[in-house]
């Protein structure tokens, strides 16, 4: 993108999808998987496509969404009802979606469709035998409307289970235009320029970055953007699945690059200790609050929601962002996340569930939420005019234009014990690295030790 843009705003509930289920929840999930994995895989349902008469049927749906997000998704469900005659119900699961679903299956009251944010959870659900494959009609619609990478992320062991309906753009650096103007810097077009600008900002009297080190997941996102750009998509895929070890030289190189930032105390608001005491919402406030303590905060498009809702910033005017810049001559990274619709085999209405997921694969369904705001769609058939303003259109376009180079959040692909548990695994090791970034090789070795345990190697 050539001009400064910002993503669609997101409600506070967007933050729920960056939380993984707790250790206790993971234990319940493992118990539930063991109890149900003995069932045979069901054959996929068949259907005549969206628009068929489903009057008298009800589709139960579950997901983490609440508040504004749920209100907007309800508009999508209402459109499905109008088109097919099928009623829908929605249950908010809380952040521990896996635990919720496991308990519902054990209790014999499984929902028909679940919106799953963590790729690793989707894979565990599929390999447990919980999910129904999406049928040929859904498959054809998804193939026509989505880049292949999105279908691939919904596929487990060669079977298509998950349709990605909502996406996040996690390669954006948000900044205060007042701070940039005061220091005389412009948005960086390379990582090297980003660090140069950071030093210029620090020299002007304001630390460059507010880093949310208290939330380990933000540090994984820093690493993933640098690694994707430096090492490239193929190496990213191999590391995400532990096909290569975390002691690979490419990992050490990325950690070294990240460590150069973390070791510059003057570039971080409060230094490393201050960053480790800062959670994600607070990091946004340090840039966009009434008394700014930093000029920039790196995170996804959901930063805009907090800057606007909590601090009264006008997005596109006094809260702007630029794309995470390319590192060492690599391509600009586009790291994403998303919510995939899956069908539970133990739900009561598999046929109507297939038709709902088929509807979610259409640009008509995506356009409903796009018009309401707080939404990015990976559906390439969606006309960008469906979004309510030009800058959101450009943000969505950047996600679509990335095509098959988009990569899913790596930590969300990992087992929760490594990539999604507070105080453990990758989160804790990268927090330790923020505290002392002097030995990238030792950090890589620590990451490999924990990854090997989690992946069962």
UniProtKB/TrEMBL annotation:
The record's Pfam families line, in alphabetical order, gives:
SBP_bac_1
Question: InterPro entries, from UniProt?
Answer: Bact_solute-bd_prot1 (IPR050490), SBP (IPR006059)
Name the keywords, alphabetized.
Signal, Transport
What Gene3D superfamilies does the annotation carry? Answer: Periplasmic binding protein-like II
This protein's record includes keyword Transport: yes
Q: Does the keyword Transferase apply?
A: no
Tell me which positions the record assigns to the signal sequence: 1-37
State the PANTHER family in the record.
ARABINOSE-BINDING PROTEIN-RELATED, OSMOPROTECTIVE COMPOUNDS-BINDING PROTEIN GGTB
Family, according to the entry, reads as follows: Belongs to the bacterial solute-binding protein 1 family.
Protein name in the entry: Alpha-glucoside transport system substrate-binding protein
Species: Streptomyces aidingensis
């Amino acid at each position: 993108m050539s001009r400064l843009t910002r993503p669609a705003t997101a409600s506070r509930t967007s933050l729920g999808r960056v939380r993984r289920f707790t250790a206790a929840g993971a234990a319940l999930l493992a118990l539930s998987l063991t109890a149900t994995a003995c069932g045979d895989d069901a054959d996929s349902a068949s259907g005549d496509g969206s628009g068929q008469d489903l009057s008298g049927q009800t589709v139960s749906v579950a997901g983490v969404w609440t508040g504004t997000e749920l209100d907007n998704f309800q508009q999508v469900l209402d459109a499905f009802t109008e088109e097919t005659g099928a009623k829908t119900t929605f249950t908010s699961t809380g952040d521990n979606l896996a635990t919720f679903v496991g308990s519902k299956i054990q209790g014999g009251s499984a929902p028909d469709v679940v919106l799953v944010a963590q790729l690793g959870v989707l894979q565990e659900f599929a390999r447990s035998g919980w999910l129904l494959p999406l049928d040929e009609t859904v498959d054809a619609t998804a193939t026509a409307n989505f880049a292949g990478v999105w279908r691939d992320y919904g596929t487990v062991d060669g079977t298509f289970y998950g349709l990605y309906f909502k996406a996040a753009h996690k390669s954006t650096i948000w900044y205060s235009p007042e701070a940039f103007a005061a220091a005389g810097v412009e948005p960086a077009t390379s990582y090297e320029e980003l660090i140069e600008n950071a030093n210029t900002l620090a020299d002007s009297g304001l630390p460059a970055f507010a880093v949310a080190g208290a939330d380990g997941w933000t540090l994984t996102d820093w690493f993933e953007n640098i690694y994707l750009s430096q090492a490239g998509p193929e190496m990213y895929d191999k590391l995400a699945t532990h096909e290569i070890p975390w002691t690979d030289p490419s990992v050490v190189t990325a950690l070294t690059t990240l460590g150069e930032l973390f070791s510059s105390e003057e570039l971080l608001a409060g230094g490393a200790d201050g960053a480790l005491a800062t959670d994600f919402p607070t990091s946004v406030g340090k840039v966009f609050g009434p008394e700014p303590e930093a000029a920039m905060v790196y995170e996804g498009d959901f930063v805009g929601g907090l800057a606007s809702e909590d601090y009264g910033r006008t997005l596109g005017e006094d809260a702007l962002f630029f794309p995470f810049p390319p590192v060492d001559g690599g391509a600009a990274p586009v790291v994403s996340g998303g919510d995939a619709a899956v069908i539970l085999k133990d739900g009561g209405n598999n046929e109507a569930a297939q038709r709902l997921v088929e509807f979610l694969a259409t640009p008509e369904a995506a356009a409903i939420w796009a018009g309401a705001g707080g939404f990015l769609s990976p559906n390439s058939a969606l006309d960008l005019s469906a979004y309510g303003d030009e800058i959101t259109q450009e943000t969505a376009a950047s996600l679509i234009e990335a095509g098959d180079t988009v990569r899913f959040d790596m930590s969300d692909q990992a087992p929760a014990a490594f990539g999604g548990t507070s105080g453990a695994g990758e989160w804790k090791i990268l927090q330790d690295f923020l505290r002392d970034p002097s030995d990238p090789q030792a950090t890589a070795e620590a990451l490999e030790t924990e990854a090997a345990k989690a992946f069962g190697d």
